[in-house]
Amino acid sequence: MSTKTRKQNRLTYGEYHKLPCKWFP
Fold first, then answer.
1. Looking at the record's lineage, which domain of life comes first (predicted)?
2. Core vs surface per residue 2-13: b (16+ CB within 10 A) or e
């Protein structure tokens, strides 16, 4: 896994809580 991918994953995790469950089952 590249550093870029890891950074993107981290952002997704943070947004996971921000975004509604509708976006992430």
1. Eukaryota
2. eeeeeeeeeeee
DSSP 17: H
How is residue 3 written in tokens? 């550093």
Task: In whole angstroms, give the CA distance from residue 15 to residue 9.
Answer: 10
Q: pTM here?
A: 0.17
pLDDT-derived band at 21 (thresholds 50, 70, 90) equals low
Backbone dihedral angles phi then psi of residue 19, each to the nearest 5 degrees: -70, 155
**Domain assignments of the chain as residue spans, ordered by start:** 1-25
